[in-house]
Specification:
By secondary structure, the protein is α/β, with parallel strands linked by helices. Helix content is about 40%, strand content about 10%. Strand 1, helix 2 and strand 2 form a beta-alpha-beta unit.
Length: about 190
């Protein structure tokens, strides 16, 4: 969904300055909420862009991962944060479909948040272990149909883009596959 945009800093600066007229922005660290686990594609994108933004605005940009509920936990935090330009959300394309997949969101997608800049395009790929002996999509579908429910598909969480794309493939192919959402790795203490 997102394409890399060199103008992100200028766009972020303009948006934040309108919210904080009384002082030069940024006067303190900027918090970036990523509603997915560390190491996810969205997290990597946020860290890459935030590093450059930090150098340009001469303030720390702190990444805070708040995964869960298909990104709604982290998004809800940003929606409730003060609109001063110091709390920014970096989300995936899942953001656009969340209102149709979750009944009671803690925020209003259109009212509570404003898009600032597209950051990049993160494609999803279909892969399978070579040991399975499956060499094409047709062979995968045939194997799944031969043993309904015996195959798993991995995702970064229920309601995430990877989960929804796998479901779209599953429905289109007419197969039964079990989604396995992976959790973040435990944090390691610094050595």
């Amino acid at each position: 969904m997102f394409r890399f945009c060199k103008e992100i800093t200028a766009t972020v600066l303009c948006a934040a300055q309108t919210a904080a007229f009384a002082q030069a922005w940024p006067a303190r660290p900027i918090r970036v909420i990523v509603p997915f686990t560390p190491g996810s594609g969205t997290d990597i994108m946020a860290r890459t862009v935030s590093e450059k933004v930090s150098l340009q605005v001469r303030q720390p940009v702190v990444i805070e991962n708040r995964p869960g509920a298909g990104g709604t936990i982290g998004t809800g935090l940003v929606a409730k944060a003060e609109a001063d330009g110091y709390t920014i959300l970096v989300h995936s394309s899942t953001y656009t479909v969340t209102p149709s997949t979750y009944a009671n969101l803690p925020y209003d997608t259109l009212r509570d948040l404003t898009g600032v800049a597209p950051l990049g395009l993160l494609p999803n790929v279909l892969v399978i272990a070579p040991s399975k002996g499956i060499g094409s999509v047709n062979e995968l579908v045939a194997a799944a149909k031969a043993k309904p429910g015996s195959m798993n598909s991995a995702s970064i969480g229920i309601g995430s883009g990877t989960h929804l794309n796998a479901e779209r493939f599953r429905l289109g192919a007419g197969i039964e596959v079990v989604n396995v959402p992976f959790k973040a790795l435990p944090k390691r203490s610094p050595r």
